[in-house]
Structure formats: structure tokens, C-alpha cells
Amino acid sequence: MPKMILHYPQGAFTQANLELLAQELTQIGLQCEHMPETTYGRSNVWIYAREYPTDQVFVGGHTGGTKVITVEVNAFEGGLDDAAKEELIEGFTESIGKFSGTPSGARCPVFVLIRENPASDWGIFGKRVTLEKLRHPPADADPV
Questions:
Q1: First to last CA, the chain
Q2: Which domains does the chain have, with CATH numbers?
Q3: pTM above 0.85, yes or no
Q4: β pairing state of 3-9 and 46-52
Q5: Contact 40, 83 (CB under 8 A)
Q6: What is the spatial distance between Cα 45 and Cα 78, in angstroms, rounded to a whole number?
Q7: Which end of the chain has the least Cβ crowding within 10 Å, N or C?
Q8: Residues in the chain with pLDDT < 70?
Q9: Distance between CA 8 and CA 17 in Å, rounded?
């Protein structure tokens, strides 16, 4: 159930590539957090894409530079072990590079920040929710 915020400078993605990227990040997030590959499972992965004018993206104190991209990932505490975090960071960086047009083999300036939040800090529809309930929903669970 990762919740993600993707920060990127204007022009980093075409709309078509942004949509493809969102699909790929969703798939990676589901796999890494061991969520069900169902409509319900997918409906619990949200991505907010925030584009910034290039004159508002600073690298080393100056505007311009490279396509620096940050992904903030909010996940359940304990939902990602060390191997899953590594897989998520590598997968996100590879996907972002592919869809931002970074040349193959070039370093892709992606910063991935994973925030693990205690289960007591998650809620939806006015009620607390647990990772276990999300991983094992009822068969008839409606998508969010």
C-alpha cells in the first residue's frame, strides 16, 4: 500500500510516459510490499505526481542542471525488509530513468526516500487499517 509522491522538473516526462511510469511504480510497490495483485490491491497504491517549473528546481544552489527527481515512499513499518527496500530503490530508479529518457547506462539522478510509518498511524475511510488486512483482504473487497 505504498503512498508515493513523485517530484520532478518540468519536461522530465511526457504525459504518456508519466502514465506508464505510474503503472510500473505501482507494480514494483505491490511486489516489494507483498500486496495482492488484484484490483483491490492496486487501488491501494497511490502516486501523486508533482511537476515543478525548472526555475524552481535547484541543484547545488542553482537552477537548471539535470533532471533531478525525488520519490517519497510512505509504507507500513515492517512492510519492507532490507531486500525489498533495495529492490524498490533499484526498480524505481531504473523505471524513472527509462521513462524520463535518461540514456541507457547513464547515471539517473533519482533520490528515493522511504518513510516507514507505524501501523497505528494508518487509516482510511475513518478507520485504522493494518498491513495484514491489506495483504489479505476479503475476496469481495471493493477497490478504493
A1: 11
A2: 3-135 (3.30.429.10)
A3: yes
A4: parallel
A5: no
A6: 17
A7: C
A8: 1, 65-66
A9: 13
